[in-house]
Each structure stands twice: as structure tokens, then as C-alpha cells.
UniProtKB/TrEMBL annotation, chains A, B:
Residues 4-65 form the HTH asnC-type domain. SMART domains: HTH_ASNC. One of its GO terms (molecular function) is sequence-specific DNA binding. PANTHER family: LEUCINE-RESPONSIVE REGULATORY PROTEIN, TRANSCRIPTIONAL REGULATOR AZLB. Keywords: DNA-binding, Transcription, Transcription regulation. Coiled coil: none annotated. Pfam families: AsnC_trans_reg, HTH_24. It comes from the Bacteria. One of its GO terms (cellular component) is cytosol. One of its GO terms (biological process) is regulation of DNA-templated transcription. This is AsnC family transcriptional regulator.
Amino acid sequence: MDKLDQTDKTILRILQTDSKKTAKEIASMLNLTPSPVYERIRRLENQGFIKKYVAILDKKRIERSVTAICQVSMRYHDETFIDEFEEQIQDLKEVQECYHMAGQVDFILKIHVKSLEEYHEFVRYKLSKIKNIGVLNSTFVIKEIKHSSEYYI
Amino acid sequence: MDKLDQTDKTILRILQTDSKKTAKEIASMLNLTPSPVYERIRRLENQGFIKKYVAILDKKRIERSVTAICQVSMRYHDETFIDEFEEQIQDLKEVQECYHMAGQVDFILKIHVKSLEEYHEFVRYKLSKIKNIGVLNSTFVIKEIKHSSEYYI
DNA sequence: GATGAAAAGTTGATAGC
DNA sequence: GCTATCAACTTTTCATC
């Protein structure tokens, strides 16, 4: 009930690249009728393999051209400080990703802003207002080589 | 023709969180009829604001639980070496994101694998086979604080 | 730009193999 | 787990305001 067969995997691969493909289209790619494809997709959703369906926007088109990677280390590593940091990061709309890391650096953040000026304001008025940040090291993306929401299956 | 009004922005915000919402549902959220919503979505697609629609999978469910951030510096910075690196990275299915950075580190990669053992094999048999890599520094995600495909609009 | 209606296509359910 | 069929709903188009 929780195992994926080859048909399931193919369906997931297709939906990861284009979720607007209809059950009918997928069915014809797999030499099936739409019904089993439809049922499998429903099952993959219910069993939690598919979390959601989203539109991917072009960041250049919506003025989020600057991508920064920001590495943060905390001054103290009390549980409370860490929890507080995590909570406050959730509310920062410029932060698209944030990971708690093993190693020297505590957190890695991916940030999207309109310009370097906006990044400066983000760091000055939002990020550095969070308590207990020790080291804060920002680098900027000069070219996006690969950026995908797909996982290899 | 290329400017977004408030209605466009609301539609984009909705589609970024749930692209399965029908034109009818969005219309009722905006106190409109489905037709103008439908036309706006078509326009947002044609003008390149919406790049694509995808299904987001649960990485734990499909055995890609380990996320690594790998920072790579090149030995030499010739154009040919850089181009070659970028090309070869495209073909590595474990690499979900790769950015060419300004600063000390040349590239930052986000990698998804099943286990640390698989990561070891990835580095040993795939990544380190790419020519001209000088420094290679891997860290692992111990907790995902935030991970979204949405941009703030 | 929006409404409203109508044609074409998809979804989702059900019966049967 | 599949095919075939069908009603309900959505998408898509278009005349009209």
C-alpha cells in the first residue's frame, strides 16, 4: 500500500515537471486509460507522496533578481535562542529557505530581494534585529546554474 | 501590458501556494466571474510571469531524506573549466540547485540523497570526478526550518 | 476590462472484467 | 488493477456591455 511501482514513479516524474498534464495525457503516455491514472494520482496524494501543486514564477519578472546565501552562527546555543531564531525566520518573507546545519555554521538561508540596496535593508532592519546572532556571512549568486523543485525518483 | 495590478498579484500569490485552485474559486475570492480570472492567468503565463506548474513531492516519502550543502572552489578559473563544471553539474540528478557565487567559494550546491552512504558515493564517484575542483566542503541539514517555492510579491 | 452563456474537454464515480 | 461509460464540473471561447 505504500510501495511505488514503476507506473507510480513515472506518474510522479511527469507531475514534477508539469502538473497541468491531464490524467488523459498521462494515460496515453503510459498506454493506459485515464481511470487508473486518476486513481493512482489520488492515492499518491492521499498517501503523502504529493504534498501540493504550485505555480513556479520567474523571479526576474517579479523583481526578485538578487539571490543571496547567508550563513549565520549563533552566539549561544541554548534551546530557547535557537527556537526563537527559527520562529522569527518563518515570518521573514524575503527568506525562501532556511536550514539548521551540522558543523561550524548554524544556519544557511536563501534570500530573494530586488536589489543589493534591499538586501542591505533586510540585513540591517530585519535579520540583525534577531537576538543572539554571532557571525553573519552573506554571498551573492552571480549565475544560477541549476534550480529545480524536482527530486530524482 | 507588463505591469501587474493588485488583482494579478493576488492571483499569483494564490497560484504559488495552490495551483489546483480553479478559476471559479479564485474568482469568488476576488468577487469576479471566472472569465477575467481565466484571461489574466493566461496572460500571466504568456508574459512569462508563470514559468510552469509542478507537483511538490515529500522528500521523506521518496527516500531523499538527506540534504547536503556542498561548497566548491575551483583550482583554476579559466572559462573552459568553469563552463565544463556547469555542464557536468546539469547531468547529476542528485543536485537540485547549483549557484555560481561571488566571493571565496565558487559554487554552492544543494544535494538530495537517501543516506550518508549514498552521499559518500556521490562525492567519490561523481562529484570528485569533475576536473579542476580545488576545495570541496560538505555540510548536512539537521533540520529544515523553512523551504518554499514561493516568492514574495 | 467585465459579464454571461454555450461548446469542448476533464474529472470523478460506478459497473463489470 | 484494468476498461468503458457517463454525469458533473471546468475550461475556453465569444458575443455583448
